[in-house]
Each structure stands twice: as structure tokens, then as C-alpha cells.
Design goal:
alpha+beta, single chain, four-stranded antiparallel beta sheet, Nucleotidyltransferase domain-containing protein, Four Helix Bundle (Hemerythrin (Met), subunit A), Beta Polymerase, domain 2, 4 domains, Polymerase_NTP_transf_dom, elongated, five-stranded mixed beta sheet, about 550 residues
């Protein structure tokens, strides 16, 4: 060790003096890199205090600065350590789910240097033989090496050559750590790997590892990346790693749990875990619709190229990265690569899309044809806002029709109220397109326009004028109707509803409206989202069919709301 026994005892005495007094029956060990024979003058001093009782001692360490060194003091009872090793033995049956922190804690204790209470230290170290720990650690590292190499095979086939090379390097570290663990070098932290390989006494392994790890294929060169992968696979096989081959046919594209697909018009939405919504651009949507679960990765790419155009690999890579699909290795389960002492494996969540407004009646806005954009709303609010957007436009159409009828009959008070209802409904649609849900009260809408981007200021100004309009003559009525039509057009252009059907003009337009609403209702029902009004559920769920009326075509309804 880089510190003498006297120096360690002095640091321990000084550290304990800063802590509350403890019972006499406890042991102390030095853990970590210095106890392993590594370390340098900047390395922490890691003390573990072991109590003979069965109490629950705190997990968090005490951090001290003693004589120029950073000292961490942790505590554990014999009962806690016994539970720790029992749990490790149980988890070791499935290396892929074994907790890294648990393995690390057990390893540090078994390879620790005793400072006090040697008999108690010997007692707890007998909870697991070091040879057994070596086997567990070796299997743990081998599982990760295998997954990283499979990950690299997939990335290479998907055209992500530089990413594949990085995972080759990660797999090299994990392969060599597995090999070293079988020889008793179980310390988890990879930064001391070079010293572990020196100590393992196999310069050929050390040198070949160093050569492969330092190899830098030309960026974007698939042939060089494949050659590097083949060399890494051959090296890993020579060290005893099994279950990997440079054969992408071993990879299959599979469904991911908790992922559902919903289409509105031409827009494809993919909902992950009922919480996040991804909106796919036109090409991304075509590739997504062409995926068939169970196909090999090469066959899936070939099919995607036929439906979505050339080079679909990056799109499938994005679907995989975001957890919208999973890749499986035939006979080896889901491919899940991970790195030690890093972020846990799992789907990535990208930054939310910045498209404005984020919603339209046809679907969420996207940034381009290859987009796999995260909608900046939780899934239930996305569904509620889009249903409110569709329904508000239905109300606008109803109000415009009612206004026309009121003007024909000279019903001026009715016309005024109906015109205001159309303005409020249009504003509800505008707010909904920006994801505002629940909505402000109608009378507050024009005053809450500060919630929306400054570009909507002309809409606020025109809405204020329309809401203050008086209709008491045919001339004023016709002017108000023309201005209202222009206002609705402006709002719909802004809110992505410019193609909304004139749903009270004909049975065909009404049917088109119901089909559009039904698409959103299905998403809302799946997510238990709140409907804009309860009548919408029966109306849209039944595609507008009236239960008490027969006929070939459902007639437009007028509920005055």
C-alpha cells in the first residue's frame, strides 16, 4: 500500500475523534483503491466501521478532511452485511439484473485491509469466499461485455459506425475485466485496469487490449469499423467470452412494452408508457408503419427502405434509442448495453420539440420528415388538448351557422351572443393548439393571451374588437359576419386547423369531422383524458349515429354548445 500501517492508524484515530463516541465492540477496515494496492496521493481514505449488533446503521458516509486527506467513514452492522451478501447471492443467478452498487460494496469489504477488530473482520469476510465473489464479478462483467458487443453489431448494421466503435471499446474494457475477475482482480472501478493487468501477469493480454482500445478507425468508415469489431470479437473469444458473433441476422426487431401507436390523418403518434408522446414525420411514420415484429434486423431495414426511402438505419436507431422498439438476440433475450459507474441503461428521452404551436387538428407538429419528436406535453394533456381543439372547431362551425340564421331573421341579440360564442370557441381552439389545458373560462380567454407567444397578439386585438361589437342592423350584422370569418381563418391558420371541414354544410363534411374527432377520442379514451364535454363521448364514439333515428347518413347535430 502507498500508506504505512502507522499512517493509517493515525488517520483513523484523528477521524474517530471527530465523530460521536461508539461502543467498544466494533471493527474497522480500510476499503477502496489504497486497500487494493492502487491509489495515489489524491485518493480518498475509505474506512468502514462494522458493529457487532443487528441495528440499521446509516448508509450515508461521514465526510471529513483529516491531515490533508479526504476521509469517508461508512458504518454497517453484522446483520446488514449478512443481508448484503445473501442478496448478492440471490441476484447473482441473473447477472443482467445484479445491482452494481451491491456488488461493489461486497467486493470492497472482501478485499479490505483490517485495522481494528480483526476477529470480527474475519467473521464477516467468511460470509462469502473470495473465489465465489470472483465468479460472480466475472459473470457480471461478461454479461455486460456480451451486451455491448451485440449493441455494437446492431449499431454497425444501422449505419451508426462511430457509435459502434465506441461500444467496441466499452466491450473491450468489460471483457478484460471479466477475464481479470476470474483471476481474483475484482475491483470494479475501471480506471485501475492497467495496474490490474500488470498484476495479472499476462503481458500478451495487456498489450493486445491496449492495441485494440487505442485503435481509431476512420470516422464514418463502415469497413474500418467492421474490421475493428471483428478484431474485438476475436480477442473476446480468445479470453473465453461466448454468445456473440458478427452476424446481424441474430438480431430481431421486437415490440417494446408499454408502447402504442395512434394515427390521426397522416400523422403517426407513438405513446410511451402512457406518459410521453412522440410525433413522427412523414418518412419516419412510413418506416414505423412498415415494421413487423419478429423480423431480423437486416430484413426490417430492407422493408423500411422500400416504404420510407433510402438509409432508414438512423430512424430505426432513433426508435431503439428512445425505447419505442427493442432489439433481441436470438436465444439471448433483449439487447441492453450498459457501462459501469455511469447512467443506468434504458430509453433516452430527448428534449421536447420546439415546434409552435405544438398541436393541430391533424396531429402534433413535427420538425421534418425524419422527425421523431417528443411532444412537449404529458400524454393525457396532449390528448385532452387535441380533443378540445377539435371540439372547439365544431362549436365554431355551429356558431357560424347559427349566426347566419339569426341575421336572416333579424334576431340581433341572438346574433350578438352567437358571434361572441364563435370568438370564444375559436380562442379555445387556439389555446388548445398551444397545449393549454384545462382552459381558462371563456370570459378570461382574451385576458390570458399572455400565456401564448407574442406572435398571437394580432389575434388578441381582433378578438377584443369582435367581443365588443354591437349587432343591431343588417349592415352591422353582415360586417360582423365577414369580420368573424376572417378572424376564424386567422386563428385556424395559426392553430393548424385551416383544413377543418365545414361540418354543418353537408353529411359528407359532418362525417369527415366525426372521423377526425373519433381518432382523437380513441387516444383520449386510452389515456383516460378529460373530454371537452361529455356529449362528445357518445357522439364521436358512435361516429355521429343517432340512437333514435334511422337513415343512411347521420345528420349534423345542434346542441347549442
Amino acid at each position: 500500500m502507498i500508506l504505512t500501517e502507522d499512517r493509517l492508524q493515525g488517520l483513523l484515530d484523528a477521524s474517530l475523534a471527530e465523530l460521536p463516541p461508539r461502543a467498544a465492540d466494533f471493527a474497522v477496515v480500510l476499503e477502496g483503491s489504497i486497500a487494493e494496492g492502487f491509489g495515489n496521493p489524491s485518493s480518498d481514505i475509505d474506512f468502514l466501521l462494522i458493529g457487532r449488533g443487528d441495528e440499521d446503521l446509516p448508509t450515508m458516509p461521514s465526510l471529513l478532511f483529516v491531515d490533508g486527506r479526504r476521509v469517508e467513514i461508512r458504518t454497517r452492522s453484522v446483520r446488514q452485511l449478512t443481508d448484503q451478501f445473501r442478496t448478492l447471492e440471490k441476484q447473482a443467478k441473473r447477472p443482467g439484473t445484479l445491482c452494481e452498487d451491491l456488488l461493489n460494496r461486497c467486493q470492497r469489504l472482501l478485499h479490505s485491509h483490517p485495522l481494528r477488530g480483526h476477529d470480527l473482520v474475519d467473521e464477516v469476510k467468511e460470509l462469502m469466499p473470495r473465489e465465489r465473489l470472483s465468479r460472480i464479478a466475472g459473470d457480471w462483467w461478461a454479461h455486460r461485455a456480451r451486451q455491448s458487443l451485440r449493441h455494437a453489431v446492431a449499431l454497425l448494421r444501422l449505419g451508426r459506425t462511430d457509435e459502434a466503435v465506441d461500444w467496441n471499446r466499452a466491450a473491450l474494457v468489460q471483457t478484460v475485466k471479466a477475464w481479470a475477475a476470474d483471476r481474483g482482480e475484482t475491483y470494479l472501478e475501471p480506471k485501475w485496469l492497467s495496474l490490474q493487468l500488470d498484476r495479472a501477469g499476462r503481458p500478451d493480454v495487456r498489450d493486445r487490449y491496449g492495441e485494440l482500445h487505442s485503435t481509431t478507425p476512420a470516422p464514418g468508415d463502415p469497413d474500418a469499423a467492421r474490421a475493428h469489431l471483428l478484431a474485438c470479437l476475436a480477442f473476446a473469444a480468445g479470453l473465453g467470452l461466448t454468445g456473440v458473433a458478427a452476424d446481424p441476422e441474430r438480431l430481431t426487431v421486437e415490440r417494446a412494452a408499454g408502447v402504442t401507436t395512434w394515427q390521426t390523418g397522416e400523422r403517426v403518434h407513438v405513446i410511451r408508457r402512457r406518459r410521453e408522446v412522440f410525433a413522427l414525420g412523414d418518412r419516419a411514420g412510413a418506416v414505423w408503419r412498415g415494421l413487423v415484429p419478429g423480423r431480423s434486423l437486416p430484413r426490417a431495414l430492407a422493408a423500411a427502405e422500400r416504404t420510407g426511402g433510402t438509409a432508414p438505419g438512423p430512424l430505426l436507431a432513433a426508435f431503439w434509442r428512445y425505447g419505442l422498439i427493442r432489439l433481441a438476440w436470438k436465444g439471448g433475450g433483449t439487447v441492453t448495453a450498459s457501462l459501469p459507474l455511469a447512467a443506468p441503461p434504458g430509453p433516452v428521452t430527448p428534449p421536447p420539440s420546439t415546434a409552435q404551436p405544438p398541436l393541430s387538428v391533424a396531429g402534433a407538429a413535427v420538425s421534418g420528415p425524419d422527425a421523431v419528436d417528443l411532444v412537449p406535453l404529458p400524454a393525457d394533456r396532449f390528448a385532452a388538448a387535441t380533443m378540445a381543439l377539435v371540439w372547439s372547431n365544431v362549436v365554431v362551425e355551429n356558431a357560424l351557422e347559427d349566426l347566419t340564421g339569426a341575421l336572416e331573421r333579424g334576431q340581433w341579440p341572438v346574433a350578438e351572443l352567437t358571434a361572441r360564442r364563435a370568438v370564444h370557441a375559436a380562442l379555445r381552439g387556439l389555446f388548445s393548439s398551444y397545449g393549454v389545458n384545462p382552459l381558462p373560462a371563456d370570459c378570461d380567454l382574451v385576458h390570458r393571451m399572455d400565456l401564448l407567444p407574442p406572435a398571437t397578439e394580432p389575434i388578441r386585438t381582433r378578438a377584443g374588437h369582435l367581443l365588443r361589437r354591437t349587432i343591431d342592423s343588417p349592415g352591422r350584422g353582415e360586417a360582423a359576419l365577414a369580420d368573424l370569418h376572417a378572424f376564424v381563418t386567422l386563428v385556424r391558420d395559426t392553430a393548424g386547423a385551416d383544413a377543418f371541414p365545414s361540418c354543418f354544410d353537408s353529411a359528407d363534411a359532418w362525417r369527415a369531422t366525426l372521423e377526425l374527432g373519433h381518432d382523437w377520442l380513441r387516444i383520449g379514451a386510452h389515456l383516460d383524458a378529460e373530454l371537452p364535454i361529455e356529449e362528445a363521448r357518445d357522439l364521436l364514439a358512435g361516429h355521429g349515429t343517432r340512437p333514435h333515428r334511422s337513415g343512411r347518413h347521420p345528420a349534423p347535430g345542434r346542441n347549442g354548445r
